[in-house]
Write a structure and sequence with these properties.
38% helix, binds magnesium ion, alpha/beta, 16% strand, binds guanosine-5'-diphosphate, disordered C terminus, 330 residues, two-stranded antiparallel ribbon, 12 helices
Amino acid sequence: MATDSQNNNLQQTVEEQTTLHRSSPSKTSMIHDSTSLDAKDHIEYLYTGTAFNLSTSKLVTLNRPTCLIILAGPVESGKTTLIINVYNSFQKGPFADSIFAGSLTLSEFERCSHDSRIASYREYSTTERTKVQDDYRFFHLCLRDKKPRSKKRDFLFTDLSGEVFEAIKNSEEECKRHKLLLRADHFVLTLDGNKIADPLSRGQGVNDGLMLLRQCLDSKMLGPQTLVDIVFTKWDIIKAKSRTDDKLIKFINEVQDNKFRPFLSERIERYRFARVAAEPDPRLRSELKPGYGVPKLFRRWINEAPKSRIIKPKIDVKEKIERQIDRYHL
Ligand SMILES: Nc1nc2c(ncn2[C@@H]2O[C@H](COP(=O)(O)OP(=O)(O)O)[C@@H](O)[C@H]2O)c(=O)[nH]1
Ligand SMILES: [Mg+2]
């Protein structure tokens, strides 16, 4: 159960992130005035839909069991583009057998996908870089199964800067500071396809990913039950490069079989590999479509849950609550 001071903080942050709108004496409020006494001081909270931070994410996590997906990887490895591609796929209709049922971070999705949307005006698209921030950032998606009368399910996706993971990789102390890791349902390690395509940086690209995973496991911030995905991003670049570099695909297969598998088999119950191209670069004239490999990966996140977590979510709402916002009133 959240303490009083946590509730105070939460209330304050929710208020900071909402637009407090007092209705002006317009026609509408005059109608209210004549029908209801309370309407005189009518206040509406309009949620702004920006990214959640740790406090505001409780708007979702205190409400329903929520699946937390941590996207981890170096700067520019394609973490934000991956989740934006998922959001954009839901704009077109059902995606990976799921239906979009809402999001409390809609304007954040829109803001981040803005660059991709106006790609037609530019030679190629790019996702805005995630800024280094002290607080965590989350995207929220609420989904339903395609089957009729299925329940809504909530998902939070981290949108953290690669610098955070660089620090975690290099320091046990820093790793232990990020308690959020203990709550992960899925830990998704992104390996930058652009770096791996280049013979000069591919070794380092792989080793950085291995070191990050090792640090999280050695520090016991991830446990054997955490579901881990190792994702080779920007597969369009790898494919294009492999036309002239015949060692590249062999290198990637060896990395999977000889580096990740022996290490992870001992420490993790379930891990998988994925190859995705969320936003292929049109200049490469790749045959891969935007979102290549994403549905398969996304299905794992929505269909598989860990047997247990190191930290169990605390949901203890005793009083009867009429409106969601009342949860945050003391
Ligand atoms: N060619 C190519 N570029 C991509 C792909 N996914 C992302 N990018 C680009 O890689 C850069 C970094 O992506 P971003 O998602 O911001 O990385 P993050 O720092 O890990 O969040 C951006 O310019 C993206 O447009 C992809 O599948 N193919
Ligand atoms: Mg980012």
